[in-house]
Design brief:
four-stranded parallel sheet, disordered C terminus, 19% strand, Rossmann fold, 36% helix
Length: 113
């Protein structure tokens, strides 16, 4: 499973001839609904990519971004079991500090383009 963290890396993937691509957008902390979408993408495409992008702008002033559940290791294990080819692990500036506090795996890239 390949883990990419920049838009440039994802654009480069689209230029390679990989066949059809199923892309599942998530904010992480995967559940059965997410996994059902990944399974469907796998059944219908030769390549499956899943984004994990916890976007702080999706939270309103009364919603607590800091308490949104996060378990990157769990998410990556689930995606690997579903034979996901690519994980687009994106972090913008508002979540980067919080993400780093959760000790991402060493091979995960968290830089912005």
């Amino acid at each position: 499973m390949e883990i990419d963290g920049t838009i440039a890396e994802m654009r480069a993937l689209t230029k390679r001839n990989l066949g059809s691509l199923g892309f599942v957008h998530t904010m992480g902390y995967l559940h059965e609904g997410h996994l059902a979408l990944v399974k469907r993408a796998r059944a219908e495409n030769s390549i499956v990519a899943v984004s994990i992008f916890l976007n702080c702008t999706r939270f309103g002033p009364t919603e607590d971004f800091k308490t949104y559940p996060r378990d990157l290791d769990r998410d990556l294990n689930l995606l690997e079991k579903e034979k996901t080819n690519i994980v687009f692990l994106r972090c913008d500036s508002c979540c980067l500090a919080d993400f780093v506090l959760h000790d991402p795996p060493q091979d995960v890239k968290t830089q912005n383009p």
